Amino acid sequence: MGYTLTLEIPKHIYEPLMKTAEQTGRTPEELALDWLATASRTAFEDPVENFIGAFKSDIPNWNEEPHKSNIKGVIMARRISIHPDICNGRPVIDGTRIPVQTIMEFLGAGDSIEEVLEEYPSLEREDIYSCIQFAAKLMANHYEVQKIA
């Protein structure tokens, strides 16, 4: 048994969807259904889920399917890691013990990327971009506060 879902799609999404449909010979509905199926499947397999605890995340599981991410997503996936034994499970720049939070605090305090790179000479510019991207993706999640007791 199927269900009908009616969506109002903004123009900036609709036009590329139609262009992709024409290029692939598929209908926009097929493309949208594939996207929804992938998004709903990966939302529950999110590697960031352990980090954010009870919050639900809509970040795709980039570790399993990096070829489906854009290049910036692949860079982030290779540069940010979360492991319970490193920095108490905080997201860090891969291969270091430098938390994403530390980099974001430097940037938030007004330091430039160049200044952060001077402070941490082992880092590359892409590491800083990955921290920014990671933080932005976390902020893109939808959160809800629930009373526990």
Can you walk through the features of this model?
This protein is mostly helical and 149 residues long. It folds into two domains: 35 residues, no CATH class; 93 residues, Orthogonal Bundle (Arc Repressor Mutant, subunit A). Helices cover 50% and strands 3% of the residues. The chain has seven helices and two strands, in the order ααααββααα. The chain has a two-stranded antiparallel sheet with strand order 1-2. The termini are far apart. 13% of the residues are buried. About 19% of the residues have low confidence.
The oligomerization state is single chain
- The share of residues in extended strands comes to under 5%
Secondary structure: number of strands: 2
Q: State the order of secondary-structure elements, H for helix, E for strand.
A: HHHHEEHHH
Q: Major sheet: order of its strands?
A: 1-2
Distance between the termini: 39 Å
